[in-house]
Amino acid sequence: MPDQTDLLLRRILTDVLGLKPGQADTFDDDTGLFGHLPELDSMAVAGLLTELEDRLDIIIEDDEIEGEMLETYGGLLAFVEAKRGA
Amino acid sequence: MVPASWPCPLPGGGTSEEFALSCDAGRDHRLLIIPALFDEGNKLRRFTVEVMRRLELARIDSVLPDLPGCNESMLPLVIQNPAGWLDAMTSAARHFRATHVLGMRGGSLFTPKSLPAFHYAPVKAATILRQLVRARILSSREAGREENREALAETAVTRGITLAGYEIGPDFYRDFEPMVPDALPTVIGQDEVGGSGLWLRAEPDENGAQADALAALLTGALRA
After folding, report:
1. Most B CBs within 10 Å: which of A14, A16, A42, A71, as the mutation test of the B interface?
2. Which of the residues A22, B19, B95, B183 has an alpha carbon 20 to 30 A from that of B61?
3. How far apart are CA B25 and CA B60, in angstroms?
């Protein structure tokens, strides 16, 4: 069962990518993000990270941002969950 | 809705004719709209114009001037500074005989104090810069160049910096960074408009329901 961080992350991706309601429910750990979705360029990723900070009440340092964490939905979720648990 | 122009004061004296989009029928309620800034300005342009169309139907005049150095302006952005932008918006308010002013997101940092103001989803300058700097770090990294925030901030205040294609001069960066929206204006939050803010979108988008909601809130407040 998806936890609260998972739900929030799906909601934020829905807002940033302009997805239809429910579309983000189909994302699984291997769903490709940065480098796979053409609209997710560096400006959009910067917006996504800022929104994650605001809504999840976390701070993401620039040197923590790595290709791996942004590449898939599972990678981003694991990063955010670790941040919230920290 | 027609293109219009207005004389924008230049720092060294004289004026420059700047562009504005205008819905002007000489009505009693006349709203000056300060556009959202930089990348958010592109993402919210259509939404802003859609709100103007709805205000027109509600018989409220509105005008959307360019900030000097942005959109259709022939002035270089790199020579602008925040005090000049505030002067420019004050002049536009006078020229178009605005009775009220609306700041969209970062545009809320430049609403003239002389008019009753609304701020739509206002944002601090530091938040705007944080996101632009982060986008630059990410795109540099993609290109194989490592940059860090501290060094970029140092470059920005000494030599200026290009962020998301916007050439920002050192004076602008230094004076802009600490700016926060005034506490006095009426704040219209995204929760009142409904849905998620269109400035968040990876690609510019539109939303008729949000434009309806913001126009209705403004109309209600102006007629109160």
Report:
1. A42
2. B183
3. 9
